[in-house]
């Protein structure tokens, strides 16, 4: 990913803003297991920026193939 990602874990809102998609899309990806890997901290959903980077790279690789 060309842009720098934050050094902290991302919230679903952060991820939606970063990718330019609606927040509901993040939750749909989660339900369908098609988005970046997330994890729970108590009841809060978070995403590791490195996992997001790897997920985006995999999408770009699939598009190039």
How are the SSEs ordered, and which strands pair?
Layout: H1 12-19, H2 23-32, E1 38-41, E2 44-47, H3 49-64
Helix pairs in contact: 1-2
Notes on the structure:
- By secondary structure, the chain is an alpha+beta fold.
- Helices cover 52% and strands 12% of the residues.
- It has 3 helices and 2 strands, in the order H-H-E-E-H.
- It has helices at residues 12-19, 23-32, 49-64, and strands at residues 38-41, 44-47.
- Helix 1 crosses helix 2 (23-32).
- It is globular, with a radius of gyration of 12 Å.
- The model has no long low-confidence stretch (mean pLDDT 91).
> What value does the average pLDDT take?
91
Largest pleated sheet: 2 strands, antiparallel
Low-pLDDT stretches: none
CA(first)-CA(last) distance: 18 Å
Annotation, overall tally of beta strands: 2
What is the strand content?
Answer: 5-15%
Q: What percent of the residues sit in helical stretches (DSSP H or I)?
A: 40-55%
Order of SSEs, N→C?
HHEEH
Spatial extent as radius of gyration: 12 Å
| Shape category | globular
**Strand numbers in spatial order across the main sheet:** 1-2
Judged by helices, strands and strand pairing, the structural class is alpha+beta
Report the total helices: 3
Which terms would index this structure?
about 60 residues; alpha+beta
């Amino acid at each position: 990913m060309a842009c720098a990602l934050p050094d902290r874990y991302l919230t679903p809102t952060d991820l939606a803003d970063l990718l330019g998609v609606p927040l509901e899309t993040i939750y749909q990806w989660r339900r369908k297991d098609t988005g970046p890997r997330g994890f729970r901290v108590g009841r809060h959903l978070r995403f590791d920026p490195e996992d997001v980077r790897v997920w985006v790279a995999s999408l770009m690789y699939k598009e190039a193939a």
